[in-house]
Amino acid sequence: MWPSATSPGRPRRERGGEVPLHFAIRYLTEYLYNAPVTDNLNALRVRPATTSSQRCDEFHTRIEPEARVSRHLDYFGTEVLEFGIPTAHDQLTIDVRARVVTSEPPEPPEGTWESLGSGAYLDAAGEFALPWQDQPAILGLEELHEALEADCPLETLRLLCELVPDSFEYRPGVTYVGSSVGDLLKVGAGVCQDFVHLSLVLLRRQGIAARYVSGYLWAAPEDGGSDSLEVDTHAWLEALLPGTDGDGHAEPMWVGADPTNRRLAGETHVKIGHGRFYADVPPVKGLYLGGATSELTAAVTMSRLDPQASARA
Asked: Phi first, then psi: what are they for 22, rounded to 5°?
């Protein structure tokens, strides 16, 4: 496993009804072992989800050494691919390819703080509203909590997307996959995984349900640039915002937000799945039998496609 990361500082995009984006994604993972291993068991969460603003048109997985792959949905609805290699081997290759179509999500609702206590909201929030990592209290959270006071939950979410990158440096290598929110506060720097974990704590302290999202980010410059990019797996969050009918019974909406890139999530974000935190949606998780050490290389390539060329009957 490895922490997700992407480069910070993408400009904010305007939300609106633009034409859908078509992407081809290749996620290549290779493990080299310094001695043969056996009984290599793995679980993958790498298939792009199908949502109201995203669909996965094609998905293929190649495993070397060859293995039979089983599929199921986990508790949170993310597709999990599982396989095992019982025979001895000193290399493992996982080659994932997908074609995805995304569109801008609808405008987020501007429901009131009072609506957070409605039955409709609490039913949808579930475990994503429960406190996490701030019990007992973590020093340094109170000032950040107070800075997020706003007129409505949506405005707090927008403030969060500015507050976190303003308060912490994006710096790979200073945290690791098991780092806590306290580690981020102590070091003052981290990557997208750390920014999201802090954001989950802050939103839940405000009474806003929030969940961790794993996926891919198309990070090409706004003025165009290459049609194919080497990227990393990325992390952002979804906050449950109350509806706006005024009586507290409107259906709440999950709204994506990317504090690493100072914006709400949009058509350039390709979602794999969500959970309470990173440990619920790691891209690759596995174990093997043997005393060997392993060397990991992983690469994600995203290509923007011509919609006509990628159309399917």
From this structure: -115, 130
Alpha carbon separation from 165 to 20, 49, 263, 280 (Å, rounded): 29, 27, 11, 24
Residue 301: CATH number of its domain: 2.60.40.2250
Owning domain of residue 272: 114-280
Amino acid, single-letter form, for residue 202: L
User: Is 57 within the bounds of a domain?
Assistant: yes
Do 199 and 56 belong to one domain? no
Same-domain pairing of 59 and 180: no
Q: Domain containing 144 — which CATH number?
A: 3.10.620.30
Rounded to whole angstroms, how far apart are CA atoms 10 and 277? Answer: 24
Do 254 and 269 meet the contact criterion of CB atoms below 8 Å apart?
no
Question: What distances in angstroms separate CA 100 from CA 23, 63, 117, one per listed residue?
Answer: 5, 21, 36
What's the whole-model pTM score?
0.90
Give CA torsion, residues 233, 239, 244, 250, to 10 deg: 100
Rounded distance, CA 123 to CA 18, Å? Answer: 33
Largest separation between any pair of C-alpha atoms in the chain: 64
Secondary structure (3-state) at 126? helix
Q: How far apart are the first and last CA of the chain?
A: 38
Give pLDDT tens digits for 35-51: 999 999 999 999 999 99
DSSP state at residue 19 = P
Copy the structure tokens of residue 141. Answer: 């959270």
Pairing of strands 169-170, 233-241: unpaired
pLDDT on residue 5:
40
Round to whole Å and give the CA distance between 83 and 81.
7
DSSP label at 17? -
pLDDT in tens, 24-39: 999 999 999 999 999 9
